[in-house]
Structures are given as C-alpha cells and as structure tokens.
C-alpha cells in the first residue's frame, strides 16, 4: 500500500550533489492467496527492493505491507519472528542461500530446528521428504552445495524455502541464472508446489517471457513506479503502456504466424537518483508528448482489473495543484 523506499545518498562520494535514491516510489498492489504476481522490469527498477520490503527484510520510508489484513510493520519483533517462517525467499542464485561449508542435510535441518517444524526425531525423515518433493534423492543428503549443478542447487534452495511450510514465497529471478532447458523444469516445480500447498508467490523477473507462464497478475515496474498492472492475458494481448509494449516486443510471439513489431528502446534506464520529471519514462518513450515532461500520469483504470500510468490512456488530466481539469 503506497510503498516507498528512499535511500539517503547525501554523504556518498559517488553521488556528490544528490540527496535521495528513490528505489521504490509509491507503489500499491495486492496478491490473492494461492496466486502469483509477476513483477517485471529492467535492472534498477526497484523489483528486488519491493520484494525485500514485503518480507520485512528492509523497512519502508513510508507505506505498509499487509499480510492477511495485518500490517507486518506493526508487529513487534518477537511476534514477527514467529511469522518469519510464513514468508520465505528463493534467490536468483541459490549459492547465496546455501552455506558452502554445510552438507545439504544440515542446510535443510537448520530451518526445521529454528522454527520447530517437526520433532527432533523426525527431522532426518523430513529432510528426505523435502529432497524428494523437489526431485532430488535422499542419497544427496551428505553432499556439499558445490557438488550439484545450478539447477539442482536451485532445487535445494526451493526445498529450503518450503521447509518451513510458508504461505508466501518471494521468488527473486529464480531461473535467470539457469540454462533455458532447466528453466522450464524449475518453473514447473514451482507451479506444482503452488497448487499442492496453496502458496502465494511474488515472482520477480527481468523480462515478460518468464512470468507469462507462471503469473495470474503482472505488474510492470520502471524507476520505482508501477507503469501498468493487469491480468496476465490482458497485459500480453493488449498492453496499454508504451513501456510494456516495448518489453513484450523484445520476445518473439509464441505463434510463429504472427509477426511481431520490434520496439527498440532508446538508451538505458535513467539513474534512480535523478529521475526524469513528469512521466519517468518520457526520456525513452516513442509517443512522448509535451505534457509528459511536465505532469506525472497516474495509474488509471483502462479495463477490468487493468491499470496503466500513461497520458495516452488518461483522456482528462487533473491538475493536482489547482484542482482544475486540463483537456488535451
Ligand atoms: Fe510515453 Fe507520455 Fe505515456 Fe509517459 S505519459 S508513457 S512519456 S506517452
Ligand atoms: Mg533484482
């Protein structure tokens, strides 16, 4: 709910005269239980920061995160510690989550112990069960993380995430580091687990091709803001925001008979420290109008459960200062 995360970079040597880095700049969205929200955008758009805020691994500058109606930032530390097991994370590179000096059995036993998931005498059985669920053999228990392939390590990362029987898992680019041939296997595993345990996912990805197959709803982020949000089919079949359109055009259409126009975006995503005025996308937008530099478009209803932040859709602009309406 209106999440913001600003970092103070005033004293940094790198950014001499600038004050604030707006990593996440006022975004709101909801995820239904048992569904997947795909959050996409280029590097530096604020996706991972959003994910960390949702897990209370980072505290917001303002805004709230509600889990089952309760603001998790209002919980005491002690109460939140108990809730921690409900909110898990799968990283892009499982190596980050797996201690290289520990064997798999110990890695998977640790969360069982900390959160008291099963009685002590059942822990070994539980580790074997978890390995089976993710498609690994219990014979692998005594091995170290480096003895596995990238895909297998991601399976261990997934086993660790589900070991606490969570409700919500932040999947932060879980397949980006894997070979394409392995990607779909991991995605299938994640969707199977979701069905089996009615898990709710925030699925972060760079491009739209990966989230398409796993998401119910998709949000497109750019420079800390949501540009467009909608049901997955609406986003793919009738994108309303020029940025979404460009992201979709980067991949071939699944139907080879349909020729897709390619939109090449100019330049790089601007620095989140010195964001463009008005519509933050205006420096790269093919449809830029004069107004786009001056005013900021709001996320506006463009269909059922579908919103876009672009003046091309917003026919009447409310001037926030004077309250008067400007037609163009
Ligand atoms: Fe492009 Fe203007 Fe729409 Fe921004 S508001 S996406 S600059 S047309
Ligand atoms: Mg990231």
TrEMBL record:
Gene3D superfamilies: P-loop containing nucleotide triphosphate hydrolases. Residues 9-248 form the ABC transporter domain. This is ABC transporter ATP-binding protein. Belongs to the ABC transporter superfamily. GO terms for molecular function: ATP binding; ATP hydrolysis activity. PANTHER family: TRANSPORT ATP-BINDING PROTEIN. It comes from Senegalia massiliensis. One of its GO terms (biological process) is peptide transport. Keywords: ATP-binding, Nucleotide-binding, Transport. SMART domains: AAA (SM00382). It comes from the Bacteria.
């Amino acid at each position: 709910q209106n999440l913001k995360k600003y970092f103070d970079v005033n004293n940094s040597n790198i950014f001499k005269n600038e004050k604030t880095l707006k990593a996440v700049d006022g975004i709101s969205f909801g995820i239904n239980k048992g569904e997947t929200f795909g959050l996409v955008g280029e590097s530096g758009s604020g996706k991972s920061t959003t994910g960390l805020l949702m897990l209370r691994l980072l505290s917001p500058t303002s805004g709230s995160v509600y889990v089952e109606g309760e603001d998790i930032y209002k919980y005491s530390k002690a109460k939140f510690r108990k809730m921690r097991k409900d909110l898990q994370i799968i990283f892009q590179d499982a190596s980050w989550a797996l201690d290289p000096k520990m064997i798999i059995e110990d890695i998977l036993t640790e969360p069982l112990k900390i959160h008291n998931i099963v009685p002590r005498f059942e822990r070994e059985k539980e580790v074997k069960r978890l390995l089976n669920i993710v498609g690994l053999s219990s014979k692998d228990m005594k091995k170290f993380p480096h003895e596995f392939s990238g895909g297998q390590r991601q399976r261990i990362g997934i086993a660790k995430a589900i070991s606490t029987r969570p409700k919500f898992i932040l999947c932060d680019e879980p397949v980006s580091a894997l070979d394409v041939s392995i990607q779909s296997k991991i995605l299938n595993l994640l969707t199977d687990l979701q069905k089996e345990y009615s898990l709710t996912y925030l699925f972060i990805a760079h491009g739209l091709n990966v989230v398409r197959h796993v998401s119910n709803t998709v949000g497109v982020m750019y420079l800390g803001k949501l540009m467009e949000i909608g049901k997955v089919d609406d986003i793919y079949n009738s994108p309303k925001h020029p940025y979404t359109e460009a992201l979709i055009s980067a991949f071939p259409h699944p139907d080879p008979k349909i020729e897709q126009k390619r939109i090449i975006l100019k330049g790089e995503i601007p620095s989140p420290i010195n964001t463009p005025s008005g519509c933050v996308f205006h420096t790269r937008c093919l449809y830029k109008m004069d107004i786009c530099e001056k005013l900021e478009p709001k996320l506006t209803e463009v269909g059922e459960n579908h919103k876009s932040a672009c003046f091309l859709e917003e026919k009447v602009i409310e001037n926030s200062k004077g309250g008067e309406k400007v037609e163009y």
